[in-house]
Amino acid sequence: MNTINIPPVVKNLLIINVLFFIATWVLETKGIDLATYLGAFYFDSPNFKIWQPITYMFMHGGFTHILFNMFALYSFGSVLEAHWGPKRFINFYLITGLGALALQWGVQAFEIYQITGTPVAHQVLSLTSLEQGQYNPSLYSANQASTLYGTYFGPMVGASGAIFGLLVAFGMLYPNAELYIMFIPVPVKAKYIIPVYILIELSLGVAQFQGDSIAHYAHLGGALLGFILVRLWKNKNTFYDYYD
After folding, report:
1. Any long-range contacts for 195-199 (C-beta under 8 Å, 24+ apart)?
2. Are 167 and 220 in contact (CB under 8 A)?
3. CA-to-CA distance for 99 and 108, rounded, in angstroms?
């Protein structure tokens, strides 16, 4: 019987994510929302904690969320870890995850600046009122109040930013690899389907559809950092070679 060979870093990431998901589910039955402690809040939020930029990558919002992310981690991460080795792979994964959060924060800071005139607005906002769903209509519209509330009290969770980094890296390193995509009956080369996927994320992020809770700019941040890292690491004269 053939055994599934999962590289060590990918295996450990899978285990950690599953353990976090189980812990979230168990604690939720006891009235504890683990996402409020380990999800990533906006850096100006009173709920922000220093460890959240790392821990948010291991939190997920539901079974479908973690299923698709872990399937992608196994499928693409295993190939990339075999290509780069464990050290470079884990660095890539964490850096793209941090880049995802950084771009999301940047977009949120710009949105808050447009509304309040400053990206660090907790001192000029009545956060207690916002948390209770109350706001002064002479100062903010309903959409603006919703944006402020979502930014300050909505944590970001998930490995999707790092996963998008993996997708971009796979497409750059293996552009002619054929992938089977849901609802498409024929295989499509990575160099075609992955850029289309990125463009879809960009359009969804710009459109900002009502009720869409997906952090599309975080996905783009992971993709952007993934692109930059692969280009840097392809250059054998970069600093990273001294640390291999």
Report:
1. 195/171, 197/167, 198/164, 198/168, 198/223
2. no
3. 14
| CB neighbour list of residue 42: distance below 8 Å, 6 or more residues apart | 48, 105, 108, 151, 152
Distance CA(220)–CA(160), nearest Å, equals 10
CATH at 226? 1.20.1540.10
pLDDT band at 182 (very low <50, low <70, confident <90, very high): low
Q: Locate 70 and state its tokens.
A: 């872990």
- Distance, CA of 94 to CA of 90 (rounded, Å): 6
**Is 3 a member of any domain?**
no
- Percent of the chain past pLDDT 70, that is, above it, reads 81
Note the pLDDT of residue 138: 61
Nearest Cα to Cα of residue 37 among 29, 237, 203, 45: 45
Residue-range definition of the domain harbouring residue 166: 8-243
